[in-house]
Amino acid sequence: MATIVLNPPSFHTAPSERLMGSHAHPTAMVDWSTLSDAEIMLRVSAGEDAGFTYLLEKYRRPIVSFMFRMVRNQAVAEELAQEVFLRVYRSRESYRAEAKFTTWLYRIATNLGVNYARDTRYERAAQNIYLDQPDPETGTTPDVADSRPTIELEMVKDERMNAIRQHVLALPERQRAAVLMHKYQGMDYKQIGEVLKLSESATKSLLFRAYQTLRERLKDFVAKDESDK
Amino acid sequence: MADLLLDPQAVSTEERRHLAECAECERELAELRQTMEMMDEWVAPEVNPFFDAKLLARLRAEQQGQPAGFLERLKARWMYGSNFRMQPLMAGALATILVLSGGAYADLAWQHAHQFQESATVRDLQSLDGNEQVFQQLDTVDQTVDQQDQDSGASSSSPTND
Ligand SMILES: [Zn+2]
Fold first, then answer.
1. What is the pLDDT of residue B93?
2. Cβ–Cβ contacts within 10 Å for residue A91, how many?
3. Residues with a beta carbon under 5 angstroms from ion ligand 1
4. pTM to 2 decimal places
5. d(Cα A200, Cα A112) in Å, to the nearest integer?
6. Which of A45, A175, B74, B156 suits a disulfide with A171, CB 3.0-4.6 Å?
7. Which tens digits make up the pLDDT trace of A168-189?
8. Which residue of B59, B121, B132 is in closest CB contact with A91?
9. Residues in B 25-44 with any Cβ partner in A closer than 8 A
């Protein structure tokens, strides 16, 4: 169902109606899945916009969720993700295949996320202290306690969830980006190092420090039987 | 320890042997793994179904709107720029020239705008380099805060440093 909405018929049923512009031959049926991202990107820079919609389809969700965990707000995350893809498209002609596509993509995303976080740093600090806005995911405000026993468990879970988000967000920017890429984007420390322009060993210790911090700050939420002694 | 968590293949047999014998290290590793596992609970919401449509509309608008927008701004600056005041007559002549050569000029302006966008991305990437320094400063600040946390909260005193 989502697919139908996501890909308005005009895009698929009329291959000649290209994203924009009218130069270049209409794209023949290409099985994009047989090409590497870098190959696709090179074809996009040669004017084949269908490759761009393929990459968008492939990375939309990963990039939005990366941004979401970076800024903790879905609407902002989607705005920033739009900006990521806009920049990818705008700079398609300067894309060089020696950079792995995902490295390039996540570098743009990290940069936007970090800049956003920095720009709104004081705002967010103020919100955390005074407002404690409704949870963007569940729509509930953590402090408005509801005493019905059926939701006790839910509340414990919410509390744990909140702690995870809070402490990931509290990590230094580069550690946060590294943890998010490692934990949620399925990237290994080598790929992360390329995105952040760090050596492998530096990335490894950056990640390790981040996880140690999280272990320390989240220890109360880890299953009791194991952490007690 | 970092290898055990992040790169198990790189762990030497020596380190493995130590882990098997050292309860402290074993516990630390288990806690790290539990923490990572617990983080799985953080699920990101679905993407808005209109995400693509919105993006593609923005791309189209950008491509169609930019040349005119750019030309407009250029014209405005020429005619009403604060440090460059033209005689009204001259401004009128310039406007006429712009109108007459519109097509070719718009092309040129479009090329220009396009290059401008590309360099925006290049700047982004450069600014990531620039961020390096800020990152380092922030890391330092954070470490200082960590240190203070540890100093003040002596009760939670398991080793945080490698
Ligand atoms: Zn040990």
1. 52
2. 20
3. B 22, 24-25
4. 0.65
5. 23
6. A175
7. 999 999 999 999 999 999 999 9
8. B121
9. 27-28, 30-32, 34-36, 38-39, 41-42, 44
